Amino acid sequence: MAVFETASCACCLGKCFCTDGKMSTKCANIVYLFILVLMTLISFVLQTYGAPEFNFYSFNVGCGDIPGIDVAACKGENAVYRISIGMAIWFVIIACANLCSHRFHTSLWGIKIIVLVTLVTGFFFIPIAGQYDYVEVARVISAIFLVSQIVAFIDAAYHWNAYFVDKAYQEDRRWTTAILAICFVFVAAIVVSIAMLYVNYSYCTRQVVFITVTVVLILASTLLQLNSHDTDSSLLTSCIVGAYSVYLVWSAVSSDECNPGVSTDEQLAVASVVSACSLAWTCYSAGMREKFSSLLNDSEEESEESEEPEEPEEPSMIWFHMVMATGSVYMSMLLTNWGTVSGHKSDAQMWVSIASQWISMSLYVWTLLAPRFCPSREF
To answer: Is the pTM of this model over 0.85?
Structure first.
């Protein structure tokens, strides 16, 4: 009996990773996410235990020749930056290759892994003289990644809300109660978090201003959503956007230099969880687009008779790989406290986080206003 159960599990795993003899898009996305997580763990280990002991030329440039710098921390940063750059370039290469064929996304894994290893190890032997310049660019790219997270969360909220509403209409009204209960939990968490922010982060005026502006933005966007009867907006979406805004303002005020102390470990843990959730949904939703595309093609073939059936159109993974590339750069900023580990104080994380919040809220408000300003277009 155990043999049959094992064989059944193996078959299910095989169906997950293979569709018509090839790896499915969803499972390929999981592999890419696993690679990103694995390389992040390797970066974390090298930053603390490996790179500080490196004593070859490329790691001494910019670290050993600068007076007053923490050499060990600088070498740890350099290891993280090199892995980050290698991964980002790797994802960009795959995104460009995907313009030619979808096969580059779901197959050729041996070649892709060799290219990744070559890129990452190759950068370890290249001196990075312009480390500060890279940090400045990485901060901008990381802000783009933070904004892309809200796109993923909004998309997830719409899908989640549609699932509950469909269940409520088809099966039981208790599904409506369930989604209202979830919204209540989100609202309670937002209110408590805002109160704690006011209590714990009032060391300077700008912290209070950032928190107050966040409250105004959340209230304004929620009221706008509740009065947008001609859109597909949902209260759940507003709750998730509000929760993400609170996370970003916490990231900003907790990184302010006017604080007596900053818990970077706590920031790293929370940011990693949030990023993992957004990347996981990005992987899942990209796979669902492939499934929807195949179902749409099947229905068209059944309704229309054609002598020469067309090949099903594969979904483009360019957006997916660009998100993963920006995520690779964002990883380097998380592990190095936005390029400040080696002893350079900076409010960079504060401004990047709060600017990302303003952009994210602006995007959400536009999704509510767009149907009114452009009624002839579908959103």
So the answer is: no
